[in-house]
Predict the structure.
Amino acid sequence: MKRLFLMSAMCCFFIIAAVGQSEPLRIIAIGAHPDDCDSKFGGTAAILASMGHQVKFLALTSGDAGHQSQGGGALANRRRAEAKEAGKRLGIAEYETLDNHDAELLPTLEVRHQLIRKIREWNADVVLGLRPNDYHPDHRNAGKLVQDAAYMVIVPNVTPDTPPLQKNPVFLYMQDRFQRPYPFIPDIVVAIDAVIEKKVDGLDAHESQMYEWGPWTNNRSQDQVPKGKAERRAWLAERVKGSASKIPAARRAALEKWYGKEAASKVIYAEAFEIAEYGKQPTDAEIRALFPMLGK
């Protein structure tokens, strides 16, 4: 009888373990503005969402300063609507923008509490953020806020109005080009060839940024942007694909690690991520579980 009980208990254990492994992953990517996460994580997010995992994008500001001729509440509402549409096109579960002012984001205790709540409410397995070295102060401060929240999300007496996470997530940095104080390290590189058009579609939803503000900041003119919708998208696709196809040697080596040399040699478009020094430090096996599209 005792042996039968033990066998039953073991069966229950393995069933529970199997169920736990099959549960969707919960991933939250945090940017300073609507469109930050799309640019750096849109392809990988689309793959994860297509596999049944729960992905959320969170912008810490409303984006209410990011335009040459619009601003304030009207622009914030426009950018919120663009973000919602981008989320639909990428297939992710949720795209939220907070009401903090664009170009005024600071790593205050109040915003830290906001961020801790959002990570806890999402019950995140993985948190992606920006590195705290960047040309834009909002980007730098968004990165600092994620770092500051990394340990606090499991501390019950911090932000006690929202239950703490039971485990510390894996924290990752999204890729960038900045060299100081040290260059981005591509610990994880994901091939996004199969979803590059979906990534373009997501960015295409951010019309105020892709076709108005971005071109204007480059040369104070939108003359290079085609007028027709299809022509505009083709113009944007050329730029997105050009950026995603830049795979330096270190990222190509990481692709070979995760996909194998032969498969990696065929990859045209990729997104890269650095494991933060905060939060859970994953093993290679755990990374494969968190990024199930990686080669075996």
User: Anything to note?
Assistant: Residues 215 and 222 are 6 Å apart (CA to CA). The longest strand covers residues 270-279.
